[in-house]
Write a structure and sequence with these properties.
mainly alpha, elongated, about 110 residues, 5 helices
Length: about 110
Amino acid sequence: MTHVPTTIALALGLAFAASLAHAQASAAAAEASAASKPLTAQQQKMSDCAKANKGKKGDDYRNGVKACLSEEPASAPTAQQQKMSDCAKANKGKKGDDYKSAMSACLAAK
């Protein structure tokens, strides 16, 4: 009869170890799932603001993050700026007068 309590204790110990291993595997799977999920625009902005204010403490940090989060995103380029950018890309590699005349022709054509 002395072997029965030892067997029960061994069985309970194995069950506990198995449940602990399962819990660790579940936690690892949850982390992997969260890591592969892309951040929303707001989450990305919060992450960027936190990084920009790294090293600050207390009110300095909170005020810096608050200011960063309240900033408006950069506006889209105007039509003229987009036109200039497109022409510059089209004439990449050209130099001097060749570049200037190509840019003039490109900007006049569009």
